[in-house]
# Entry
Amino acid sequence: MGQGISEVLPFAIGIAISPIPIIAIVLILFSNRATVNGLSFLFGWVLGLAVVGTVVYLFADAANAATDSTTSDSISWGKILLGVLLLSLARRNFAKRPTPGQPEALPKWMSTVETITPVKAMGLAIVLAVVNPKNLILAVGACAGLGQLGLSTEDAVVAIIVFVAVSSVSILFAVGYELLGGERAHQTLDHMKEWMTQHNHAVMAVLFLVFGVVLIAKGIGLLA
# Structure
């Protein structure tokens, strides 16, 4: 069990500290239907990660990634390629970071988040969880790695649950803090949103760099 959790934990942390989903949930929590929209977003986030994680693990397990050297090597090379992709995205985000005093440009869809419906909030969360390139790469890297470990079904299920739970910590914290923390929570989340907005590209560049290196190292380690 510990081996599976240690495999997915770094990737889950990388997903949890993604700036764009955090900014999105804070904006949703400032909307007129904050409670229902926030809970819908949280549900969609958890659902999206759970589905993609389970599908990737089942695919790797069905391909006998733990016992078939060809399949395992293919997954390892895939991790290396995904790592290289993350490094290229790190370079791109670092180059796009604003100069001091220049405001950060956010996606245009964020201007409509405060008037979003519960169904759209859930759909947005699913998109940010599994269609967002960084989160998708990290989810694939984590759960494909599980398939290479030869875990029992019970241990794999626990590892996936931990992966989803840790990946959702920031969203869960924001929703719970807003619902229970009152005006102070509103001000704290607003400050967090402003910081995340201003440093979005810099944070993403660091995350891409770190997890690109992690994926490459894991891929090379298994090939060796």
Remarks:
- The radius of gyration is 18 Å.
